[in-house]
Amino acid sequence: MINLRKMKLKILFILVFMLLTTNISLAQSQQATVIASSGIVRESNNFQSDIIKSLSRGTTVSIIEEKQDWYLVQSKEDVIEGWMYKDIIVFNNHKQSSIKKGIITARVINVRAAATTQSERITQLTNGTEITILDTVNEWYHIQLNTGVKAYVHSDYVKIVPTYPVGRILKGNVNLLDKPSSDGQKVGTLKENNTIYIKGYENEWYNVVTENFLEGWVPSEFIELQINITNPVNRSGSRTHTLSDIKSISEKYLGKRYVYGGNGPNNFDCSGFVSYILNTYYKDYLQEKGINLPRVSRQQATVGTVVKRDQLRVGDLVFFNGSRGTINHVGIYIGNNEFIHASSGGNMAVITSSLNAENYRRRYATAVRL
């Protein structure tokens, strides 16, 4: 009887000890804050994995494990555990890392096996490509490619940038303030489409760092988070590399018949074509941005951020008015003043057209960036 009592006390002691050490471990684990408007938590570390929950911006999570570009997190508030992508959270009490980020500034640069121009060329990188810098060797940067291969590029053709998630300014002349409050002192001014790096978040304000390492606070409503689902990523002309291949993808459907109400893949109407391309090939991007793309063109025009015609980028949606002055047509901008769309005109098919064509120049209504 005494032995049984001792055994029960021992088991109880072990359980209490495990509980206490677990709580201590969680308390000491690295904390991070969700910075995306919809912080998606997945069952495993890939975009094809099922979604467990979407955490609101500002939610604090504990980092349990890191794997490639993903973090295994726990949320005490929501009592969940799952994986979050690196670009939708920032670490609290961020410590400076020896690893840096850089942007390629040359049109094309050789990536070599060693820190010398005589070494083997492994590949080439183009202007605007983001790289991870591990170390500096003389005048060369030791980098890691997205394939995991480590190599070297010359430092003359690389611009060092802050190591935080990337955002874009949505309007011109936004004040950069010294604290997260409208009565803060102005420390700088940001222009529309400026790239900034998000260091922290507090009460609907982002703590940001500019490309020139000027730090301050900006209201979250003026910033669009740039989710970078491929690394390295080209930032020369698109919000991320995610939609940069939309031209080649959508052109696979050139010549497919126009049919009113058609949803693809063998026939489309205009909004059906846009919906099919984006929901088939860019579903994860839409989910990460918290976008539920409507089916009808005039409703699609209400989603995303309105952009001016002279600021169009590949992947933006362009809209046109009908005879009654309301939006009744949509296409996908593919660069060089051209867009691809399912046309109900003479061709009755998916075609590419110029925005300068009289019919479309006259009917042009607006454009949005998802």
Overview of the structural elements:
- The chain is α+β, with helices and mostly antiparallel strands and 370 residues long.
- It has four domains: 28-89, SH3 type barrels (Roll), CATH 2.30.30.40; 100-161, SH3 Domains (SH3 type barrels); 166-226, SH3 type barrels (Roll); 243-369, endopeptidase fold (from Nostoc punctiforme).
- Helices cover 16% and strands 39% of the residues.
- The chain is built from six helices and 29 strands.
- A six-stranded antiparallel beta sheet has the order 24-29-25-26-27-28.
- Strand 9 and strand 10 (121-126) form a beta hairpin.
- It is globular, with a radius of gyration of 25 Å.
- The relative contact order is 0.09.
- Mean pLDDT is 83; it is low at 14-27 and 230-241.
Give the SSE layout.
Blueprint: H1 2-28, E1 31-34, E2 39-42, E3 51-55, E4 60-67, E5 70-75, E6 80-85, E7 89-91, E8 100-104, E9 108-112, E10 121-126, E11 130-137, E12 140-144, E13 150-154, E14 158-161, E15 166-169, E16 174-177, E17 186-190, E18 195-202, E19 205-210, E20 215-219, E21 223-226, H2 246-250, E22 257-258, E23 267-268, H3 270-281, H4 283-288, H5 297-300, E24 305-306, E25 317-321, E26 327-335, E27 338-342, E28 350-354, H6 358-363, E29 364-369
Parallel strand pairs: 22-23
Antiparallel strand pairs: 1-4, 1-7, 2-3, 4-5, 5-6, 8-11, 8-14, 9-10, 11-12, 12-13, 15-18, 15-21, 16-17, 18-19, 19-20, 24-29, 25-26, 25-29, 26-27, 27-28
Short description:
The protein is of the alpha+beta class and 370 residues long. Helices cover 16% and strands 39% of the residues. It folds into 4 domains: 62 residues, SH3 type barrels; 62 residues, SH3 type barrels (Roll); 61 residues, SH3 Domains (SH3 type barrels, Roll); 127 residues, endopeptidase domain like (from Nostoc punctiforme) (endopeptidase fold (from Nostoc punctiforme), Alpha-Beta Complex), CATH 3.90.1720.10.
